[in-house]
């Protein structure tokens, strides 16, 4: 019996070009495009310098800023109001003002005050822009000291030099960090969206009633629905791993069986969610909107773009209730860090509990309504 | 034993709503072709859904093939065939795949009962590799009937099978039902078309969730209580107006070119003709006529 249900399901899937495209092309495109685009390193910050000094030293500082590669000099003016106009027109993100006696003050008084105005509409860009400028100014400052201060006089302030070592991602490459996360989201979308939509489609067309008046048992019908999407989820995951290896050279550090084992468990939970949504919806449109809502919350709170630790406690609590959060964390752990079963056991426990609750709820509710 | 037995079935949707099916009772004998005739919204589909175990009744009992629709629903499901009013097969599977799928769902094979559907399936066989969604309306109907028959059900439930089907296909469809009846399959069919009712063994007229009458088509027509005249040959609006003003008028309805007028006492054809002539409708021709099922339905509806 189950064989016939599965045969029918796979026939329908392979005839549906959209589903095939979603399953085969979406992972490729998303994995290739998204990690390249979603780069935390902010480049091309528009810099405007208000140079009231026009001295060689001011020139040297400007050059050092533009040579860093982070900044694009979009304005070089002599008046602050002019620079502010640029800021308002969104043509400058950062305005650095050099005072009139910049060079003289630097040489004679051994110190100078600069002012920095940052356009904070894009918080990340503003924060990073200011940080970059500060770092470059510090380097410049050290160079000036070496040049102007007599060599026999030691720096008055002790300098603490920090040399960071980035474990598991030595070059702090954001792609290495993003790819497992994007892969987790992909598996979620295939499992959640497709399973919910598929069952609701049968409701919409009325075929579910034809099945209901037949001797087919409910659990066979549900299994016949879940298994194909469980297989599809694994296919997408495998494709994604291949892309990660070929395009980004990311080879999972941990054990493959453990990785697949966790994804299997996770798919059970997310398919359960899809099933649950489908039991509450009558049309594909409703199912689509509800699934979309969950996906948005899951993805934004899942720790893909913003670290969980930077969230307020309530948001973190919500995030822990989302299975996606755990998948993203575990994927990063196993793929990048080579974590073992022991390390992922807590997450596995939570996801297993979610799978149990969601599926039980879905089956109980499905029985009740028919 | 009755193939289908319905006793005081009631079902309402939502509190405070008038019940969709209200205390309905009737029985269908084995091998009978039983028609459920009534306008849209009369409760036909609700009744069907209760009988094929998709819906629970609020009150009353019903059994199909001796199995209770609530207690023994599993047994009913393997012995009945159901064809809903809306086309509900897999549009992305081919004709043949649909047939094989529904056969396997009922734990049988297409070849097991092929004789039963041969006549019907031969007509759509040339399109067996076409997707069901790409078939014409009549073809879809035939395929749906094939799928409902593939496990040789003892009782067949057809919910408005001919709604939206062309007259030729409708006739073919009813011919097919006649053959199935000869095979000993009990058939419960609903339709809003009164002309189809004449082809049933017995019919139940249903209106607003209540059964108005259960009888054979001939019995129903014979039981029409009023003298009835067919009047024609004059403009219909004027004719209907004059007939309604007749002192003994019960009702007058347009039936195509003719108006059917019922009276409390027989006015006589000549007298009626004279009445219409006096009213300025000299061209009108009058003749006594037998009641159609539609006349009976209109009359019953009016009295209830």
Automatic annotation (TrEMBL), chain B:
It comes from the Bacteria. It holds the Pfam family ABC_tran. The keyword Nucleotide-binding applies. Residues 4-233 form the ABC transporter domain. CDD domains: ABC_DR_subfamily_A. The keyword Transport applies. SUPFAM superfamilies: P-loop containing nucleoside triphosphate hydrolases. Keywords: ATP-binding, Nodulation, Nucleotide-binding, Transport. GO terms for molecular function: ATP binding; ATP hydrolysis activity. Transmembrane segments: none annotated. Belongs to the ABC transporter superfamily. This is ABC transporter ATP-binding protein. It comes from Dawidia soli.
């Amino acid at each position: 019996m189950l064989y016939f249900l599965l045969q029918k399901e796979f026939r329908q899937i392979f005839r549906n070009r959209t589903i095939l495209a979603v399953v085969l092309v979406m992972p490729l495109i998303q994995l290739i495009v998204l990690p390249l685009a979603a780069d935390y390193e902010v480049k091309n910050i528009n810099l405007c310098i208000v140079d009231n000094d026009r001295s060689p030293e001011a020139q040297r500082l400007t050059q050092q800023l533009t040579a860093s590669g982070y900044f694009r000099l979009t304005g070089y003016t002599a008046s602050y109001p002019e620079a502010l106009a640029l800021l308002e027109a969104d043509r400058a993100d950062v305005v650095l003002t050099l005072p009139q006696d910049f060079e003289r003050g630097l040489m004679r008084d051994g110190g100078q005050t600069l002012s920095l105005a940052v356009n904070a509409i894009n918080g990340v860009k503003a924060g990073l822009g200011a940080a970059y400028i500060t770092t470059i100014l510090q380097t410049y400052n050290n160079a000036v000291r070496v040049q102007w201060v007599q060599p026999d006089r030691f720096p008055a302030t002790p300098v603490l030099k920090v040399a960071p070592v980035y474990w598991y991602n030595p070059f702090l490459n954001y792609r290495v960090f993003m790819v497992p996360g994007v892969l987790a989201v992909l598996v979620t979308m295939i499992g959640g969206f497709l399973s919910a939509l598929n069952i609701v489609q049968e409701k919409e067309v009325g075929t579910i009633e034809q099945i209901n008046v037949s001797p087919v048992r409910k659990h066979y019908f549900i299994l016949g629905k879940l298994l194909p999407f469980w297989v599809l989820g694994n296919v997408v995951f495998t494709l994604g791993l291949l892309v990660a290896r070929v395009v980004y050279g990311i080879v999972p550090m941990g054990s493959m069986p453990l990785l697949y084992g966790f994804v299997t468990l996770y798919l059970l939970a997310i398919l359960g969610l899809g099933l649950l949504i489908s039991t509450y919806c009558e049309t594909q449109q409703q199912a689509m909107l509800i699934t979309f809502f969950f996906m948005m919350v899951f993805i934004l709170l899942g720790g893909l773009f913003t670290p969980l630790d930077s969230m307020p406690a309530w948001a973190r609590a919500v995030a822990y209730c989302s299975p996606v959060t755990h998948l993203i964390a575990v994927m990063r752990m196993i793929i990048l860090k080579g974590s073992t079963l022991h390390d992922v056991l807590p997450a596995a426990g939570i996801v297993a509990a979610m799978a149990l609750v969601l599926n039980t709820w879905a089956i109980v509710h499905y029985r009740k309504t028919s | 034993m009755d193939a289908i037995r319905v006793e005081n079935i009631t079902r309402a949707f939502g509190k405070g709503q008038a019940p969709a099916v209200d205390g309905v009772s009737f029985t269908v004998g084995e091998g009978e072709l039983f028609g459920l005739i009534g306008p849209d919204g009369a409760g036909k589909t609700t009744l069907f859904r209760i009988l094929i175990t998709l819906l629970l009744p609020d009150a009353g009992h019903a059994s199909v093939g001796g199995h209770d629709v609530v207690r023994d629903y599993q047994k009913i499901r393997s012995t009945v065939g159901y064809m809903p009013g809306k086309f509900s097969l897999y549009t992305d599977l081919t004709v043949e795949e649909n047939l094989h799928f529904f056969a396997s769902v009922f734990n049988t094979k297409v070849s097991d009962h092929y004789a039963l559907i041969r006549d019907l399936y031969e007509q759509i066989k040339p399109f067996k590799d076409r997707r069901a969604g790409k078939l014409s309306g009549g073809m879809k109907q035939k395929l749906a009937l094939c799928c409902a028959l593939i496990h040789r059900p003892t009782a067949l439930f057809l919910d408005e099978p001919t709604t939206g089907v062309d007259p030729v296909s409708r006739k073919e469809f009813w011919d097919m039902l006649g053959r199935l009846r000869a095979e000993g399959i009990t058939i419960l069919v609903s339709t809003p078309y009164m002309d189809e009712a004449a082809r049933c063994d017995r019919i139940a007229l249903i209106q607003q969730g209540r059964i108005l009458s259960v009888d054979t088509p001939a019995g129903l027509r014979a039981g029409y209580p009023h003298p009835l005249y067919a009047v024609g040959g004059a403009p219909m609006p004027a004719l209907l107006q004059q007939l309604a003003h007749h002192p003994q008028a019960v009702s007058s309805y347009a039936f195509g070119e003719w108006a059917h007028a019922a009276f409390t006492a027989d006015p006589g054809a000549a007298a009626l003709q004279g009445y219409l002539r006096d009213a300025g409708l000299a061209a009108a021709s009058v003749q006594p006529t037998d009641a159609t099922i539609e006349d009976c339905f209109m009359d019953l509806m009016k009295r209830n």
